[in-house]
Amino acid sequence: MSSTTVRQDQNGFSLAEYATCLNGIVWREALRFLHQRERFVSALVRPLVWLFIFAAGFRQVLGISIIPPYETYILYEVYIAPGLMAMIQLFNGMQSSLSMVYDREMGNMRTLLVSPLPRWYLLFCKLLAGTAVSLLQVYAFLLIAWFWDIAPPPIGYLTVLPALILSGLMLGALGMLISSGIKQLENFAGVMNFVIFPMFFASSALYPLWRVQEGSPLLYYVCLFNPFTHVVELIRFALYGQTNWISLAVVGGCTAAFMIGAIYAYDPSRGLIRRGPAGGET
Amino acid sequence: MTATDAPTSGQIAPDTPPRHDPAAMPALSVGGVSHSYGPRRALIDINFSVAPASFTALLGLNGAGKSTLFSLVTRLFGIQTGRISIFGHDIGLAPGEALRLLGVVFQPRTLDLDLSVTQNLLYHAALHGIARREARLRSGEVLARIGLADRAGSKVRDLSGGQMRRLEIARALLHHPRLLLLDEATVGLDVKARADILSHVRQLVTEQGIGVLWATHLFDEIKPSDDLVVLHQGRVLAHGEVARVIADAGADDVNSAFMRLTGAAADTGSPAP
User: Fold this and answer.
1) pLDDT tens track for B122-178
2) CA distance A185 to B234
3) Positive/negative CA dihedral, A122, A127, A128, A129
């Protein structure tokens, strides 16, 4: 590739080199995903258990009134489907975060970080790769749900894609930010307790916000300010070919904020500087 | 390498990213570098350089600061004080240009055990922007050179320790670096595997003109014709040709020279002259 024929950025890298790097990182993530079939199965089983057992049990208890984007009464299973799609992405984002901590402890992360391409770009590629994996999981879930008579309008399968990409990026960036602050793999259990569960339960994934408000006005505000609520609502509206602009703004803003935070945290002159070398090294 | 070759921090202009003839530059230039982990000082005013097509041994006991220095050269850590440049490219100001010219083998294994030998190489190539077809060609070449061509499809998990190290060296060479850093690359290997790897790396110096910085705590890995940097408790105690370091220390061999230097440092609390 001649430097005279290929456009290069100010760092001296051509667009083809950036594309090759992205391709390589996504390819590696896909290979790892294929090697970990249990991860794929467990990522699907979790929301399906909620759908087939939890939702079936609560169908008679929780009535859902007609709220946008729905235009008629719906089954509880239909209501929680977007929340479960978001849950898949939430767990996937945290799984990516876990794998980054693991990679850092095992040393694999160094391979990525000593690449000459800009570090922000490497992290962004990693994020895109994780999002691509989460999309596969979500569409597999939608396929199974379709057999359970949970079927949005056909166009919804397409219109939900941009929402899933954005929410996947947001939750992946959150996971990346969290991973930058975790020094040991053992500390990761705390993420389950202090991030995943509160984010999921204090949201509109399982029950509409008006019902939460009736029960606890304080919890209502917690749910309202929880970015995960807006991930769920963005997906819910997009599944019916509509846009929830407030949720779009919140998810877009949070994606940018988490991404900037993660890039900042992984900047060698800031985040990593506080850490000593890996165990045994000096 | 001589003491006068070692740059000072003033020699690397901070505001003007160099655009020099790479052949005229030192492969690696470390000037006035210090680094601390909180209150603990890991490196104190480190100055030395590595010439192109030379083998420089970085000798120090465990805890001397070798891995910290490697983390700074590879930009895993930000530089707190001083300057590091690779063929004139400041690692802080022009990291892309500098890292393009650098191959590195870290002390811990950094291969993906679940991927095959070739897949590990292709991943590394992609991280350097090398197109897939070219990467496959280069992978075949480096695997043949290190004697792993028949294991190209094997999972890395199934390789021996020596084979993994050879693969890491092959991977570090895939993007045609001009400077190679190896951090205790022979630790945990048997005698034959150690000798093979050391011999292979020395060949890279003579045949391909690659500058090598070889961090070790093993005296028998150092030859009299090598350059030597003695690092102890975060300070450079001596640097120069091995024979000269031995003579300056008034010793008979590297082992006793090291003992004298580090003993002197322990007595005075400061670097030996």
Assistant:
1) 999 999 999 999 999 999 998 988 888 899 999 999 998 888 988 998 899 899 999
2) 29
3) positive
- Residue type for position A160: V
* Cβ <8 Å between A272 and B122: no
Please name the residue of chain A whose CA is at the shortest distance from the CA of residue B103: A114
Q: How many domains does chain B have?
A: 2
d(C-alpha B75, C-alpha B78), whole Å: 6
User: pLDDT, tens digit, for every residue of B94-105?
Assistant: 999 999 999 999
Is residue B184 helix, strand or coil? coil
Domain map of chain A by residue range? Answer: 15-273
Nearest of B10, B14, B13, B9 to residue B47 by alpha carbon = B9
Give the tens place of pLDDT for each residue, A37-83. 777 788 788 888 888 888 777 766 666 667 777 777 777 888 889 99
CB of A27 within 8 Å of a chain B CB? The answer is yes
Q: Which of B36, B110, B119 to mutate to test the interface with A (most CBs of A within 10 A)?
A: B110
CA distance B218 to B215: 9
| Structural domain of B91 | 3-101+177-268
Nearest to A23 among B99, B108, B126 (CB): B126
Same domain, B158 and B186: no
Query: In terms of DSSP bridges, do strands B211-216 and B179-183 run parallel, antiparallel, or are they unpaired?
Result: parallel
First-to-last CA distance in chain A? 40
